[in-house]
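Q: Convert this sequence to structure tokens.
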Amino acid sequence: MTRLPSSPLNSVEPNPGRKIPAHNAAAIRNAFKRFTRSFCSNLISAGKLFFVFLAIPLLAQDVPKPRAEHVVLVVWDGMRPDFIREDLTPNAAALAKSGTFFAKNHSTYISSTEVNGSVLATGMLPRNNGIIANREYRPEVNLIRPVDMQYPWFVRIGDAVHDGHWLRVPTIAETVRKAGFKASVAGTKSVALLHDRAFDRMLSDNAPVVFEGQAYPRAFEKNLIQELGKWPEYPKTIAPNTAQNKWTTRALLEHEWKDSIPKYSVMWLGDPDFTQHLTFPGSPAALEAIHDSDTHLGLMLAELEKRGVREKTDVFLVSDHGFSTVERALDFTAKFRAQGMKAKVPFRAVGQFKQTPKQGEVISVNVGGSTLIYVVNHDAGIIAEIVEWLQESDFVGGIFTRDGAPGTFKLSDVWMDSPTPPDIAFSFTWSDRPNKVGVPGSLTAEGRPSGSGTHASLSRFDIHNMLIAAGPDIRAGLRSELPSGNIDVAPTIYHCLGITPPQPLDGRVLVEALAAGVKKDFPAPVTKRIEAARTLPDGTQWKQWLQFTTFGERTYLDEGNSNVAE
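A:
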């Protein structure tokens, strides 16, 4: 019997005994005061927190007016599109037949949960929404160690020190609420908090959000526990996370939807990601987990039918990313530390700082199929040393730097040039080799044993993900071969809601899938590769490449790798 770890995210408060560094504490207290004063001032002067956006089309006259009265976004964490089958996912397969299946949908790199959770929530690329990885080094929030970007305590601190802008732009749910409508969010994972975390919800009973068994406001959470019981533990053996997904689904359908169906809802289910990490894509347990998520999708659709609004609701079923099998488990941290001691420009590689960071120290942050590297004071000599070492390695599939150092791409090439970027980011190598049950997509990774599943690389199997849409605004029976992406989901949802977003979005409305009134002559997608190469001191050639597909004005990253993988 394999026992599984308990969740480290079981409280919105810091872990017992963990102290906020003194140098951060004063700044956090002052930021909370500033934010509270600003909040109260706005409340008094405006008399209310909501304002209404004009419901005007997002594009030209070719875009039809929206028909739906409700929109529901359902996320299956880690779902690959090649597992949509009538025998395994009957509800999803039926949804695809009644609507549109996007055969060439793209996750946003880094192909991980918090990155794409933020993209789905905002319609903005990582450079603009501010979340570029599941874990980042954010010294304004924690000077000593990397932070989990969705962890409730860090979200609260981040919003405090950034005047409410941990996410730098509003989300769909927040915008819907400000437009005077009801929005509901429920997620098995804490990433759901990123969809609707506004400070005012902590002070009132308005617009509850449920995330990993917790909820804001706290009164709503207490009511959920009374009705549904305590948040279930993770399974004791390798099995789907059915209990937590069921608890979350009930929280949405029976409580957040109790009085009426909101204008906009989010339901985020943690499988098959949970089970695929413990096993691998295509394993019996992973297939069972996929079927389990499909069952909960069916419960949601049945509830819409019961309420008489199924035909008035647009449903978007999407995954945050795809999945691969770990072919080679690598202890990068140990290699990195050893390299630091023998480097020409020596450095001290750490997973977290023991005290205030010092010159010559470097922190690495692994997120599965990719790793971020932060160099104290951006020391150019150390950065050049690390880049060259990575290019000489046998495990790197692509390197990104702030300025595009020789043989690397710029962080901006993959939209990672946020206000708080790493000095170096790299993806591990990958291939299309199948795992032991014949599912293609293998990679090198840190933090997971060989034979298990993970993601977050430049692999097309991580980037290529599921998207299905159906409802009164969506064309029926269409399999779209045009490129699309998670970045396009929010603009399309805004259109279906009839609400204008508060700022121009990075994605596009998926006009090819709208039910009526759209031109059918679309420009042909254009696919191209770009390369970055360098001759290393020993005379060997390092080369890496990225493949993009451009459709109209929107460009999608398809995949990327290096000659090391060849």
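The longest strand covers residues 541-551.
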